[in-house]
Structure formats: C-alpha cells, structure tokens
Amino acid sequence: MQRTQVEIRPTRPDDEERVRAFLLGLSLHTQTHRFFAGLTRPSASMLRALLARDERRDALVAVSEGRVVGHAMACRDGLDVEIAVVVTDEWQNVGVGSRLVRTLLRRVTGAEWVSMDVLGENRRVLAMIRRAWPDAVMTVESGSVQVRAELTFAEQGSVASPLRV
Q: Could you tell me the superkingdom of the organism this chain comes from (predicted)?
C-alpha cells in the first residue's frame, strides 16, 4: 500500500454516509472483533451513536483521501472512560488504531481509568494493550476480555495533529 496522509479528527454530522460506507467495507472478521457480531446494514440510531459528541462522549475518525479508514469513540462516566476502536482491514497494522486511541485519550478530561471490551480471540489487540498498559487488569467473561487500566497524565493533553503512516 502506498503511504498517504491520514487525518485524525472529531466526527461531524456530515460524516454519516462516510461512516456507513466504512462499516459496510469492514470484513466480517473485523466487524465481529469490534461489534461482536456482523453488520448487514448499520441502523440510523447506530450511526448517530458512532458520531455522537457531547460532554460525556467523544468520537474520532481517521480519514484518508476523503474516506474513513478508522473510528474511535469514548464514553465517560465519572472517573471512568470506556473506549472502542476499529480500523478498516487494509489500514490495520500501520499504527492508525494506536494513534486513534492516543488522540482520543488526550481529549478525555477528568477520567482516571480507561476500560474496553475485547473479543477473547482478538489476540493482536490484547497484545497491544499489554504493551501499552502492562498493569491493566484483564477479566475474561463470556468470551470477551474486560480491560481496565489507569490513565496517566502523559496520555491526557493536547490533540495530535494529522499523521503520516
């Protein structure tokens, strides 16, 4: 794949069709790793939830040449923030997911803990989490792994600028 610029930015209401196309372009394997099920047609309510940004929720997209290639979202509840990330198949393993997570966590204010649910078979993501947060607590429950890790000051700060992958 030729290296091109990827912009990481907050979602906008006009991203709905780009995010729909992104979701439908994910392989069944990737859809299942993110949503724990395959998607046939993303509903309007699902798209609204993926784009939502307010005092508790944040969402980012990674965009290359006008096309969404990654999505990350966070939902803060008190001192906890739950995150979820997915990157299109052809852009996996080049750092887009890691950059989405770092950028998302830099935007979170007031949270001390990050959590996420990871499908137990998603070994690549679980290995990445172990490297990023070696002290994370991982609990297996019904085929998924609940991850909880303490946020550090270094993970919170200014928003990252567009990146090159």
A: Bacteria
For helices 96-107 and 123-132, the axis angle rounded to 10 degrees is 50
| 85-117 pLDDT per residue, tens | 999 999 998 999 999 999 999 998 889 999 999
Render pLDDT for 15-38 as a digit per residue (tens, 0 to 9).
999 999 999 999 999 998 888 887
Reported pTM: 0.87
Domains defined for the chain, CATH in brackets: 5-112 (3.40.630.30)
Tokens standing for 21?
């196309």
Give the residue among 43, 51, 41 at the shortest CA–CA distance from 11.
51
